[in-house]
Amino acid sequence: WPDSLPANDLREAYLRELARRGDWTTFRALWKKSAAIDLQCDELQARLAAGATLDYANDLAPLWQGAHALPDACDAVIAAARGSGALTDARVQERLDRAAADGRSGVAAAAAALLAGADRVDANRIVAALRDPVATFAQAKTWTDTPRVRDAIAYGIARYARRNSAAAETAWADLQGRFQWDDTQKNRVLNALALYRATSYSPDALARLDALPSAADDDATREWHVRVSLARGEFK
Q1: What was the pLDDT predicted at 147?
Q2: Which of 39, 51, 60, 136 is most buried (CB neighbours < 10 A)?
């Protein structure tokens, strides 16, 4: 019964043991497509051991294009992809931004560690803004206005708004005039401030949601507009 659940569980357990041993020849012989991310990375490692070259679109993009953490089994594959040029700085930056937008500081930190020089400094600012936004806001007053500096502040305010929307509002009022925000950065902040005012059913929640630019509105803010309106008995 090769297609049964017990057979699949046994195969995947044995594949993990083969990967631990580094027995890539036997691994390749027994490999069947799996939904397990660690085994997908092990299979890529097995191909690398056989002298294959990884293609970003077919091999790496399904793992890389997301904001979730990758298991340790993927470390060697990511390192090889960086070394071969398949995983470019631009692709690392894209993953960093996806993780930051999702509030995943650990994933953002792992992406930042793949960068170097000024890119690494900027990326570490973004990670710090996610992990300690209050300290970031204090330091930001001395920072030169650059796109990645603004990104760090915007991600930090959006993250902080989840915990304390009033304090995040104060930080935004303090920093807003110091930097030349682009629309994406500004809308990220406005969206988070309005959304988390709404999730706490603050008195100004509807006004904040109504005032959002259309580009800053999304499914979450629209949903909470309905929730707050229903809670107040406003059905029109």
Answers
A1: 97
A2: 136
Coil, strand or helix at 104: coil
SS (H, E, C) 171-208: HHHHHHHHCCCCHHHHHHHHHHHHHHHHHCCCCCHHHH
CB 194, CB 212: distance < 8 Å:
yes
pLDDT 10s digits, 166-186: 999 999 999 999 999 999 999
Residues 83/94, Cβ–Cβ less than 8 Å? no
User: Are residues 195 and 205 in contact, defined by beta-carbon separation less than 8 angstroms?
Assistant: no
* Region class of 85: left (phi > 0), else alpha (psi between -120 and 50), else beta: left
Distance, in Å, from the CA atom of 167 to the CA atom of 153, rounded to the nearest integer, reads 14
* Cα 194 to Cα 61: distance, rounded to the nearest angstrom: 33
Q: Dig out the tokens for 40 from the structure.
A: 């997908």
Residues of the chain with pLDDT under 50: none
Looking at residue 2, what is its pLDDT?
80
What is the token pair recorded at 10?
């046994």
Rounded Cα distance between 13 and 224, Å, is 44
- Alpha-carbon distance values, 14 to 19, 59, 177 (Å): 9, 23, 59
Sequence-ordered list of residues with C-beta below 8 angstroms from that of 25, at least 6 positions apart, any chain: 50
Going by C-beta distance under 8 Å and a sequence separation of 6 or more, which residues neighbour residue 203?
none
Q: How far lies 88's CA from each of 61, 77, 98, 164, 169, in Å? A: 12, 14, 16, 36, 36
Spacing of C-alpha 149 from chain mean position = 17
| Structural tokens at position 195 | 């959304």
